[in-house]
From TrEMBL:
<feature type="region of interest" description="Disordered">
    <location>
        <begin position="289"/>
        <end position="322"/>
    </location>
</feature>
<feature type="domain" description="Tyrosine-protein phosphatase">
    <location>
        <begin position="5"/>
        <end position="147"/>
    </location>
</feature>
<protein>
    <recommendedName>
        <fullName>protein-tyrosine-phosphatase</fullName>
        <ecNumber>3.1.3.48</ecNumber>
    </recommendedName>
</protein>
<dbReference type="InterPro" id="IPR000340">
    <property type="entry name" value="Dual-sp_phosphatase_cat-dom"/>
</dbReference>
<dbReference type="GO" id="GO:0004725">
    <property type="term" value="F:protein tyrosine phosphatase activity"/>
</dbReference>
<comment type="similarity">
    <text>Belongs to the protein-tyrosine phosphatase family. Non-receptor class dual specificity subfamily.</text>
</comment>
<dbReference type="InterPro" id="IPR016278">
    <property type="entry name" value="DUSP12"/>
</dbReference>
<feature type="active site" description="Phosphocysteine intermediate">
    <location>
        <position position="91"/>
    </location>
</feature>
<dbReference type="InterPro" id="IPR016130">
    <property type="entry name" value="Tyr_Pase_AS"/>
</dbReference>
<feature type="domain" description="Tyrosine specific protein phosphatases">
    <location>
        <begin position="67"/>
        <end position="126"/>
    </location>
</feature>
<keyword id="KW-0904">Protein phosphatase</keyword>
<dbReference type="GO" id="GO:0008138">
    <property type="term" value="F:protein tyrosine/serine/threonine phosphatase activity"/>
</dbReference>
<dbReference type="InterPro" id="IPR020422">
    <property type="entry name" value="TYR_PHOSPHATASE_DUAL_dom"/>
</dbReference>
<keyword id="KW-0378">Hydrolase</keyword>
<dbReference type="InterPro" id="IPR000387">
    <property type="entry name" value="Tyr_Pase_dom"/>
</dbReference>
<dbReference type="GO" id="GO:0005634">
    <property type="term" value="C:nucleus"/>
</dbReference>
<dbReference type="InterPro" id="IPR029021">
    <property type="entry name" value="Prot-tyrosine_phosphatase-like"/>
</dbReference>
Length: 322
């Protein structure tokens, strides 16, 4: 009788497809006590007697959010192995969804990258191949240092916000107001290189930590292209709330102090003057803004985000690590 596909190592961790559940003799011989099902198909519950069973109902599609389930699936696998039993992780084919969950577990347990975990897993089951969306989620999970609670990670929250923006774009509408992430309400008191101030009234509208770099304007690109960009693109900030929460697809941004038009936004994206397409496009016009070195930066090294008085500590990786 062919053995189950066992992940190399000391633990009794197995991976397979739906038909693996019908190999009762092999499951018993392997000492399987826990079964993790990662699929949405109707399941015959008789297949899971007498195992402890957990189901994660997801489809094998690139835009499915499997990342949010990693802490729970990791905990389920760990509980089964720590109790001395065997754990079978399966999906329909034992190729993408189940592989993704096993990789997430290996990453957390052994502090390895997604690629390293996939290479290790393929020693047991060569067909393993998470879809590209799941691989991106695994890479993000690694950059977040595989936290026990992904939903508290700023990196995860930004990723969810970006997904919401992309979904709204596909529907031709603005994101729901309650789902907009205003970055300065979550960030720490990071040091900044410069402030962006309204040229008319000198009100600080943003700091360098909230700028979103795009390919043509990044420091690794041709400096002449960076200078050609007519806008600063940045994260949503709390002073923009009255405008961004109106549900409009695009509009103007006014300085909250002097009400001068200082920029614009387009949830559907816009093309920068350097030809790069930006999504979402929230921008300040360079012709209406001055870059100013904060006077206190040399003394303290930090500045509070614009418009805030106190900020909660930031947990998770910095934007530079993403």
């Amino acid at each position: 009788m062919a053995l189950l596909d066992r992940v190399p190592g000391d633990s009794k961790l197995y991976i397979g497809g739906l038909f693996t559940l019908r190999r009762r003799d092999a499951l018993e011989e392997a000492g399987v006590t826990h079964v993790l099902s990662v699929l949405r198909l109707p399941l015959d519950q008789r297949l899971f007697v007498p195992f402890k069973h957990m189901v994660v109902e997801v489809d094998d599609v690139e835009d499915e959010n499997l990342l949010e389930h990693f802490p729970a699936t990791n905990q389920f696998i760990k509980e089964g192995l720590d109790a001395g039993g065997g754990v079978l992780v399966h999906c329909a084919m034992g190729k993408s969804r189940s592989a993704t969950c096993v990789i997430a577990y290996l990453m957390q347990q052994h502090n390895i990258s997604a690629e390293e975990a996939l290479s290790h897993l393929r020693k047991a089951r060569p067909i393993c191949e998470p879809n590209s969306g799941f691989m991106s989620q695994l890479e993000l999970y690694g950059s977040m240092s595989t936290p026990q609670n992904v939903e508290e990670s700023p990196a995860y929250q930004r990723w969810v916000f970006q997904r919401e923006v992309e979904l709204s774009r596909a529907c031709g509408q603005a994101p729901d107001a309650e789902k907009i992430r205003f970055e300065d309400e979550h960030a720490s008191q990071d040091s900044v290189d410069y402030e962006l101030r309204c040229r008319k009234c000198r009100r600080t509208l943003a700091t360098s930590q909230y700028l979103t770099q795009h390919a043509s304007a990044s420091s690794n690109s041709d400096p002449s292209k960076a200078r050609s960009c007519a806008h600063y693109f940045l994260d949503p900030l709390s002073w923009m709330r009255p405008e961004l929460e109106q549900g409009k697809v695009d509009g103007r941004l006014e300085c909250p102090k002097c009400h001068t038009n200082v920029g614009k936004y387009a949830w559907q994206g816009m093309q920068c003057s350097c030809s790069e397409w930006i999504l979402p496009a929230i921008s300040l016009s360079k012709s209406r803004i001055d870059e100013v070195k904060p006077q206190s930066s040399a003394a303290t090294g930090i500045r509070r985000p614009p418009g805030s008085t106190s900020m909660p500590p930031r947990r998770g990786p910095s934007k530079e690590s993403l």
